[in-house]
Amino acid sequence: MTYHPKSDFMAVLMERGFLQDCTDYQGLDEALSAGPVPAYIGYDATAASLHVGHQMNIMVLRWLQKTGHKPITLLGGGTTKVGDPSFRSDERPLLDDAAIQANMDGQKAVFSAFLSYDDSPTGALMLNNAEWLDGLNYLEFLRDIGRHFSVNRMLSFESVKSRLDREQSLSFLEFNYMILQAYDFLELNRRYGCLLQMGGSDQWGNIVNGIDLTRRVADQEIFGLTTPLLTTSDGRKMGKSQGGAVWLNGDMLSPYEYWQFWRNTTDADTGKFLKLFTELPVEECERLGALGGSEINEAKIVLANEVTTLLHGAEAARAAEATAREVFERGGMGEDLPTLVLSAGEVADGISIVQLFVRSGLAGSGKEAKRLIADGGARMGDQPVTDAGQVLGAGDLAAPVKLSAGKKRHALVQLG
User: Fold this and answer.
1) Rounded to an integer, what distance in angstroms lies between the CA atom of residue 44 and that of residue 83?
2) End residue of a domain, out of 272, 302, 329
3) Which of 50, 101, 279, 392 could be a cystine partner for 396, CB 3.0 to 4.6 Å?
4) Closest Cα to residue 78, out of 92, 95, 57?
5) Model pTM score
6) What does the entry list as the binding residues for L-tyrosine (predicted)?
């Protein structure tokens, strides 16, 4: 694409690699050039924390605000009751109101680290779509909104089509999701003058639906853009580690473990991730990403420090780097390492080394822990673990013990 943007926001998106598709590049660019544009991204409350897979779009909202526009974080208190079927092979488990509220409470803390919520023209808004979805009258909604949707067209969207092509069930409940998301855009346009919906590339069909609906019902010209599906250089979906999802809430993943996730970025991804997840100038990101040999490790430390500072603060980033240097360079224990605390009762009859690797989060299962040991990647202290049948007693754990999975992942085990 050769379009040269006039607005700062569009220029940032294109220069840093955030932009996948846009419904009308020129029209959106002109709207962004004319004054503050309210724009939103929706987040369903399916977990108590957002994870790294959400972070690229949170950075999009941050850049939106930094370039003079108004970000809206829309929490899906209503849509979570239905569940987004996009590119899923099965139906999401349904959550009750209490679980949805608890998840929203957990997610709110993350947004305030990246966005400024205030009453200024560019102050962020945090909204909940239950505000307008919970009170809908079904017959009125069908008559006023449902009549604008073609089932033929809805069946053609890739997110639905892929499910049907595999002959996997798609419930009527889930089929309604895209109508509700489209209605969100209409309501945000009516209530807050919202002109733009953003989301991952898997949301393209849902976004286009909202634009069509708002044009038909309110005769308003609005816009949509998507960010690319982010994969690592080895083809894995961004946001997963060996221990599971990389959560953004500090009580679900410690700042040290979060820092360590970014420090373990592959060489090939370092420059790209610096552009997407930090605010360093693009030229500096490219310079750091092009470093070779051992120097690329320093670029990864810059990445880890910058990203951790944005989410958890500069002090947490400094502490994480200090712990990492102590563990890796000086062989120390590192006070901030993830720690498994065992009671005396739990080790009274001994506890297997396999169980310790699983419970400390260094292995996802007993089978994975045994494979780690068999492959020579497990260490206790600085000694290789060679016997998967090894059992430790209270005496072995009188002092804290450091477990390692490979060279980069560590945990402490101690008695409480």
Assistant:
1) 8
2) 329
3) 392
4) 95
5) 0.79
6) 40, 177, 181
